[in-house]
Design a protein that fits this description.
Blueprint (H helix, E strand, L loop, with lengths): L9 H19 L3 H20 L8 E5 L2 H6 L1 E3 L18 H10 L5 E4 L5 E10 L13 H12 L3 E5 L5 E5 L2 E8 L15 E5 L4 E5 L20 E3 L1
Parallel strand pairs: 1-3
Antiparallel strand pairs: 1-5, 2-4, 3-4, 4-10, 5-6, 6-7, 7-9, 8-9
Helix pairs in contact: 1-2
């Protein structure tokens, strides 16, 4: 199995990340400006899913873009460990920050990241408004409900790391991609993404399933989302 992208030289790393996760960005229809940041976040999520932390699996949530609207629809679970730091220290491309984020992923709640790739908050409690329009997959739990709901209400994209080592991407309330350790994908029946096209990447031990239904994020929140009783999720 090949080394993961962070082991490559900088000029090779961006090409490897694009080859791995470019199809996810295509499906989300993010702008060129956001594409590199989204790929970096997905890479970080996959590293977390593969490595865990302190010898155990972890689950977390990254909410990317439209950060002001996301902050309005969430609240801190504890004193924010990222608050008060210089903005330049909080970019997803920084190796020291990525290790900090991996450590903080053990806390309940999710991370809020702006469209330029700067982290604004950690351990954030995301409000969930359930309606008939979100599709997060029954049985996937509250992180996935939070990712589906917040992307239905805002222009954000959500990246959910499951303790089962699967990474799922949501846009406009819909599950658009799943990134799965290859050995877990025994059949399509285990996929939640609808009509998914599967790209096996054996050299990295991954299978990347992208929904065949195009979903954009730049034309605003999905219409018709009404609360059936607001909940919160971590």
């Amino acid at each position: 199995m090949a080394d993961f992208p962070n082991a490559f030289a900088p000029d090779q790393r961006s090409d490897v990340i694009e080859r791995l996760f470019g199809s996810v960005c295509d499906r989300v229809k993010c702008t060129d400006q956001k594409r590199q940041v989204l790929e970096e976040l997905i890479e970080l999520a996959v590293e977390l899913a593969r490595e865990g932390r302190e010898g155990r699996k972890v689950g977390t949530l990254f909410v990317f873009g439209d950060h002001e609207a996301v902050l309005e629809r969430s609240r801190p679970l504890l004193l924010d460990p990222l608050k008060g730091h210089d903005r330049d220290l909080l970019h997803v491309s920084r190796a020291d920050l990525r290790e900090t984020i991996k450590e903080l992923s053990q806390l309940d709640g999710g991370f809020v990241v702006d469209h330029e790739g700067f982290f604004h908050s950690a351990a954030r409690y995301i409000n969930v408004e359930i309606s008939g329009s979100e599709s997060f997959g029954l049985g996937l739990g509250t992180r996935h409900a939070a990712g589906s709901s917040i992307t239905a209400q805002t222009k954000a994209v959500a990246i959910v790391v499951s303790q089962s080592s699967v990474v799922r991407v949501y846009a406009k309330g819909e599950l658009v991609a799943e990134i799965i350790p290859e050995l877990y994908l025994m059949s399509r029946d285990r996929l939640f993404a609808r009509d998914a096209k599967i790209n096996n990447v054996p050299e990295f031990g991954l299978a990347i399933a992208v929904s065949d239904e195009g979903i954009g994020t730049d034309d605003g929140p999905r219409a018709g989302v009404t609360s059936l009783g607001a909940r919160s999720a971590v």
